[in-house]
Structure formats: structure tokens, C-alpha cells
């Protein structure tokens, strides 16, 4: 499986429940690190724009290790979490086992692909933040950000020397957010009455600063879905989801921002999403930092009908293609949800309703033509 050099994948370590950074062998980097200069990504001293995708399932593919978490909620609607676990808990103490992740990083190094690696997941599937709150005595979902035991345990414990593992990230709070995998979303502990934007921002500041004490090579972002915190009657703009995009982007040890777009889940329109993209691009210019449209998707007609009981007039080519055009005009790198491949030994990977398979006709426009267009920003 080979993707263009401009491609960047976000890897779902979030799906594992593992928070510790990969404890990898020392090695000589096979490719340079991505950096940020003058509000842009750079690679080898030149501006670097990329068209990428998301593949949360990569660590599970071809991994034969069978471990089950102890004293943790029974998560994992995709079937993989009952077979592959990166962190095991016994009597409140975690043990890390990440052979599957190492395989993905090795493959990325060989093909020149850069990865965004999620340190943990806001959502309960595959463990996520609630793995920590349950095992460390927390009561509320947001105790992950509050309890000293959770904050110390969830800190990365070692640095990675691979330029492929580009960016640890963290998911934000989820008052109104909807996760992209969710036909079978698992319940999570309730949100407390003291779950504030300030709590989230302070935690992002602390963790990003700590990561930089371990590793100055990799870029860091916080993985929120992009919620603003301004006066508005729209939950995505008024801080209701726990986010404050502009303030979080301004933190000194945050290198770039990310935002997501799932109008199907959020009961938003295509036109609303068009403006959402432009607003985040404007925030990036104001802060002088890159911003990535990190996850975005528009359901297939059948998935929308089956899951939400709704129909929409816009096709995927119209909706997703339009968002990609706006990202290109705004000079934003983007990463569609999610990468679909049909030639695994087991056939196609799971289709969550958003998956774009490379051998389907729509991929010519939404994957290959988009990658070529973004490549043109690099002078390719």
C-alpha cells in the first residue's frame, strides 16, 4: 500500500487506549522532521502542504497479539479492541505493549509517510480517556483532565526518534461533539458540573509543555474538533463543547491547530461547514500558525438513512469536493475521514458510512485529484 509523498495519515492510537508515547529503539532518522515557520509547515526547508487521510484501524491490521484490558469498560464496537490492546491495567498500574504501533511507524518510515499520532481518545471506544478515569478512581469523564493521578499517568513517558511519528495529540471534551465511527458508540461517564473551557485549556498548556521537555523535534497539537469560544447561539462557536480554538492555538507549545467537520452528526448543513472551514483558516492566519482540516466526512446516502433516518440532497462529490476546494483556496492541508482499502487479506476495512475506498469511482476526485491539487501548492 503506497500513498503519495505529500500524504499524511492520522493514526488511531486513540483507538488503543494507550497514552504513553512509543518506547522505540534509538535509530537514525530516515527522513527529516516537519517544522513550522512563518505560519506554514515546512519540510526540508520548503513549504509543505499535504492531502492525507485517517486510518484508526492500522495498528490492528496484521497484529496477532491477544490481550484484554483489566478493570476497564468493555469498549470496542469495531471488533479489534477485544483482540489488540496497547495498554493493560492491573491493580491501577499500566503496562505498555505497542508492537502494532511499531509496525505502522516502520511502514511509514519506509514509504515516506508522516503520521499524526493520537495519544488517547475522548471517546469511550477502545478505552480512551475513560480507561484512565475508571482505573484511577475517577467518577466523571472530565476527571481525566483534573485528577493528579490521571494527569501524571497520562503523560508521555519517552521520546520517539522517528520523524514519521509527527505529532502527539489530545481530544477535547465532548459536550455536543459526535465521534465519526459511531453507529455503535459506547457510553462514557457523565460530564461534571465543573467541566469548563479553562480546565481544558490549562490541561492542554501543561501537557504540550511537558511533551516539549521530552522532545523538541515533533510538532504538537491538541486534537480538538475546533470549537470556538465567542458570543454565539451556536454550540460549535460558544464554547459549549469545552473548546476555545483561538486561545488553544495561541499557547506557546502548540505548533498547529486542527478542526473536524461532521455536519451529519452535528445537524449542520454543507453551507455551514463551508464557513466553518473559512473561519478556522482565518484563525490560523491571525495566530501565525498552520491549521489542518484534520477530519471531515459526508455520509453515503444509505448510511445516513440507516443511521440517522435522514436524506440529503448533496452528493459526496458535491459536499466533500466543495470543502476540499475551499481548503485549497485557503491553503489548508486536509485529511478526509476515512481511508478505505479493498485488498487486505480480509477484504475491505470497515465502512463506517464515511469511508472512501481507493478503488471506488469517487476516489478519483476526492483522493487522487485532491492530492494532486494540494501538491501543486508545493510546486509539484
From TrEMBL:
Residues 167-188 have a biased composition (Basic residues). Residues 147-194 are annotated as: Disordered. It comes from the Eukaryota. It comes from Parascedosporium putredinis. The keyword Transcription regulation does not apply. This is mannan endo-1,4-beta-mannosidase. Keywords: Glycosidase, Hydrolase, Signal. The keyword Signal applies. Gene3D superfamilies: Glycosidases (3.20.20.80). PANTHER family: MANNAN ENDO-1,4-BETA-MANNOSIDASE C (PTHR31451:SF21), PTHR31451. It catalyses: Random hydrolysis of (1->4)-beta-D-mannosidic linkages in mannans, galactomannans and glucomannans. Belongs to the glycosyl hydrolase 5 (cellulase A) family. Residues 148-166 have a biased composition (Low complexity). Its EC number is 3.2.1.78. Residues 1-20 form the signal peptide.
